[in-house]
Specification:
The chain is an alpha+beta fold. The protein contains 14 helices and 31 strands. The strands form seven sheets. Strands 3, 7, 8, 9, 10, 11, 12, 23 and 26 form a nine-stranded mixed β-sheet that branches. Strands 13, 14, 15, 16, 19, 20, 21 and 22 form an eight-stranded mixed β-sheet that branches. Helix 2 (42-61) runs antiparallel to helix 6 (165-186). The longest helix is centred in the N-terminal third of the chain and has 22 residues, at 165-186. The two termini are 24 Å apart. Bound molecules: adenosine-5'-triphosphate and magnesium ion. The site of adenosine-5'-triphosphate has 15 residues, from strand 8, strand 23, strand 26 and helix 11.
Length: 591
């Protein structure tokens, strides 16, 4: 400890929102260099290397081969797949001295695809899986929580190459099994959930989420085994209803109804339904967004959904990616005068020239109109009339209005039925630790990766892409294991196996502690000896902060020939004869 490059801090860093960030900085594992960019200190690096090693071993075990790409990359491959544009502001871009565009790689599908194209040309060369553990750069809109969401971070990314779909499926399953082993070894409490394939395209896709309240992802589970990121939940569309026999639409005054509750209350008082009371789920709320495309163009989108639900921002982002949604501004409303803020509806029933479609397939506006899958053919709604202070009742989908399509972005609520019929869903939060997906032929097609098949015919290769957040894992483990005293590493990741604390004055104590440390070291145990001239209190507090799973306290008991073996997690200490200390520690750490 007296020579280790570390300074523990008594104060939390000002920007620490989560436990892992606070403790990793205070315990001297990492230092902030810039927002979302961190320097690894010796202790942090030791943990990082252990995570990398676990990942490496499990990747090697499925026969994946390690390579290492540069982070500094040319524009052209990313241009060919359109990601130079699609990635928008997420990419760090730069120019070399000749003015050529370069980027810092946010992910490497293109480079791997080109590498295989460069060297392989026959089905006999496949399958092959390649991986790297490498630094990625993303100019995240909201870097946060220290290593959890950085702008520079370490990822293990691997890619599989197969001639056919069955091959891809097999490569995917192998990766899935390797990921289960990786996350089991890292000691995560995790779930595997169905994921949204997002900007990458492709089909089958799953995420590994560490269960944590501080996580940015929300996932659902059902008793029957359904598990999905909320972004990837596709609800069961409502059934179409017969249109015949439904009452005619009528527009009514609805003053002072700024909320759905007030509208429902007034409706039940003045415009009662014949069969039952109106509820929030009978109202059709129309929310307008401006979608900003990566190329700078914009497009207005109105979303119709039951008024008792909100649009879930994350589900919306996932659904419209790579475009980015933002709420309508007053200028946007001014440019679309048919949309009356607070009273937006698909039709203006009582316009002088008769009913006018404002949104939907034959609409007057250029605003695209997509509805929630609950807004099925024949369903009947209370909705805005495009006139201030008035709503329209009994507006029937397919009779009075249409839409340009459906969009499944309403919030998912606790108790909603799972789409596969496996029971009511519960919601929880998680940290995305890994993502595996079947890319298919998108990248191979864009970059021309083809091989000759058995019949001498050129076929496009099919690919999988698999990521693990390696630096994020360091933080996520810290997040899941730390307590009110500091870090608390599982043995497999701890930077040291054991700490030996020399507490108390006198040469004897230090000599005994040094000897014990040497003896343990000779047995292959990684020891951190606290030999500083500091008070026992300081040493105990630092040992707790650093989070080494076991420590041996050499001090008071020495006169009687005993030391104390202390467990970081339980805080329990037991006296052990000095002569037995090495054997006790070896047993404790499972050697
Ligand atoms: P997120 O939804 O958290 O932004 P992503 O979908 O962008 O993640 P991928 O592109 O699939 O992530 O990257 C693979 C893995 O890299 C993720 O599962 C995650 O563990 C890690 N990762 C992604 N972005 C970051 C980041 N900004 N900082 C640290 N790790 C990250
Ligand atoms: Mg991301």
């Amino acid at each position: 400890m007296s020579s280790l490059f570390v300074r523990t801090l008594r104060e939390d860093p000002a920007d620490a929102e989560v436990a892992s960030h606070r403790w990793l900085v205070r315990a001297g594992y990492i230092r902030r260099a810039a927002p979302g960019i961190y320097t690894w200190l010796p202790l942090g690096l030791a943990v990082l290397h252990k995570v990398e090693q676990i990942v490496r071993e499990e990747m090697d075990a499925i026969g994946a081969q390690e390579v290492s790409f540069p982070a500094l990359l040319p524009r052209e491959p990313y241009e060919a797949t359109n990601r130079w544009t699609e990635y928008g502001e997420l990419v760090f871009r730069l120019k070399d001295r000749r003015g050529a565009d370069m980027l810092l790689g946010p992910t490497h599908e293109e480079m791997f695809t080109l590498l295989v194209k460069d060297l392989y040309n026959s089905y006999k060369d496949l399958p092959v899986s390649l991986y790297q553990i490498q630094t990625k750069y993303r100019d995240e809109a909201r870097p946060r929580a220290g290593l959890l969401r950085g702008r520079e971070f370490i990822m293990k990314d691997s890619y599989s190459f197969d001639v056919d779909d069955a091959g891809l499926e097999a490569s995917y399953q192998k990766h899935r099994e390797a990921y289960v082993k990786i996350f089991d070894r890292l000691g995560f409490d995790y779930v595997i959930v169905k994921a949204d394939a997002g900007a990458m395209g492709g089909s089958a896709s799953e995420e590994f989420l560490a269960i944590a309240d501080s996580g940015e992802d929300t996932f659902v589970r059902s008793p029957g085994g359904y598990a999905a990121n909320v972004e990837a939940v596709s609800i069961t569309p409502a059934e179409a209803q017969p249109i015949e026999g439904q009452p005619a639409a009528h527009v009514e005054d609805t003053p002072d109804t700024p909320t759905i509750e007030s509208l429902v209350a007034l409706s039940n008082e003045k415009y009662r339904r014949e069969d039952r009371a109106w509820t929030g789920a009978d109202t059709l709320k129309n929310v307008v967004f401006m979608l900003e495309n990566p190329d700078g163009s914009t497009e207005a989108l109105a979303i119709g959904l039951p008024g008792d639900r909100e649009v879930d921002p994350k589900r919306l982002e996932a659904a419209v990616s790579p475009a980015e949604p933002r709420p309508f501004t007053d200028e946007d409303f001014a440019a679309n005068p048919a949309l009356v803020k607070g009273y937006i509806g698909p039709v203006t029933m009582d316009a002088p020239e008769g009913a006018v479609q404002v949104l939907g397939a034959e609409a007057t506006s250029t605003v695209r109109y997509l509805v929630d899958p609950r807004v099925a053919e024949g369903t009947r709604w209370i909705t805005g009339s495009n006139i201030h202070g008035r709503h329209v009742y009994d507006l029937v989908m397919g009779r009075d209005f249409t839409a340009d399509g459906t969009i499944d972005v309403a919030e998912i609520r606790e108790g909603d039925p799972a789409p596969d019929g496996s029971g009511p869903m519960t919601l929880a939060r998680g940290i995305e630790m890994g993502h595996i997906f079947q890319l298919g032929r998108k990248y191979a097609e864009a970059l021309g990766l083809k091989v000759l098949d058995q019949n001498g015919k050129l076929v496009t290769v099919t690919m999988g892409s698999y990521g693990v957040g390696v630096s994020r894992a360091v933080a996520a483990v810290a997040e899941g294991t730390s307590d009110e005293k500091g870090l608390c590493w599982p043995r497999e990741l701890a930077p040291f196996d054991v700490m030996v604390l020399a507490t108390g004055k006198g040469e004897q104590v230090l000599e005994a502690a040094e000897k014990l440390a040497d003896d343990l070291d000779a047995r292959g145990v990684k020891v951190l000896l606290d030999d500083r001239k500091a008070s026992p209190g300081v040493k105990f507090a630092d040992a707790e902060l650093l989070g080494v799973p076991t420590s041996v306290v050499v001090g008071r008991g020495l006169a009687e020939g005993t030391v104390e073996v202390k467990d970081r997690r339980s805080g329990q200490a037991r006296p052990v004869a000095l002569a037995e200390a090495v054997a006790e520690v070896l047993a404790e750490i499972g050697r």
